[in-house]
Amino acid sequence: MKKIEIIKPDDWHVHFREGLFLEKLVPETSKLFNRAIVMPNLTFPIVSSNQASEYKKQLLDFSKNNEYFEPLMTLYLNEEIDIKDLIKAYENKIIFAVKLYPAGATTNSSKGVKDITKTYKILEAMCKCKIPLLIHGEVNNKEIDVFDREKVFIDNELTQICKEFPNLKITLEHITTKYAVQFVNNTKRNLKASITPHHLILNRSDMLEHTIKPHYYCLPILKREEDRKALLSAAFNTNKKFFMGTDSAPHDIKNKEADCGCAGIFNTINCIQVLAQVFENNRQLNMLENFISVNGALHYELPLNSEKIRLKKVKDPINFPNVLKINNFKIKVFKPNFKIFWQLES
Length: 346
Ligand SMILES: [Zn+2]
What we know:
The chain is of the alpha/beta class. Helix content is 34%, strand content 17%.
């Protein structure tokens, strides 16, 4: 029987939503991870330290199954952010990073950034105080094809941000293209990238071939097979520029299987086991720990977790629950297109 032991991972990008969802979702994350960067795109986005602190309290209430768990809070970037409030919140460890959503690019992002140059004062302050900038790297422009939006963002916006703020610590989040992998690999600046489990596993044909699979619909949208392969080699790379952010993004099943289905994949429950399988299938199991437990902490200059997790390989494929129920809501659990034989030992 095959067993591996690795440093306990962190999730560098997660959506907990709000209200009823928190009680069920937060403990699913806190039992598996010691830290999680929490996205601020709630119905009322988190734009002040008070909101972040209030939200953080709620998260800590629901994460008592792991005494080490630390939710790392983000502030939703827009032109009106109070710079003094931001700096104070960062110094007091209420806020960990700032998140840039181009307006309208994804769920609850209508109040995001329309013109990046109008946030330069904020970025300047972040640079000085070493506050990381997390970026949803897609333009939101009807004239740009949805499959090209990451590339256009890199060319038109990110290149400019990197040039103006060479010392700003930047995470290009949930990258999806070969182009983004090359950009991150070729830039010497303080820029790294996160990759989701589902973008390592699926391409757009998996979502669209013969029948449409709403549970594979996410943003940024799945891309070509050559992109997926580039993401895989980035994840297996030894240059430490790439790490896991699950982008686990739950929606009620009714809002996924609808005329206008929401974007987002919920993978918290099985992401570690699924990734162990992906890495093993590609004979890269020895690189798993770097990708899920090491590279992100190095980028954010945080200590590695001292706890460990153990995975064991079992004979029969594991059946994960199909849905997570929260009162009358049902959240579909991510189902990859291959069998999983890796089990987490508690
Ligand atoms: Zn996200």
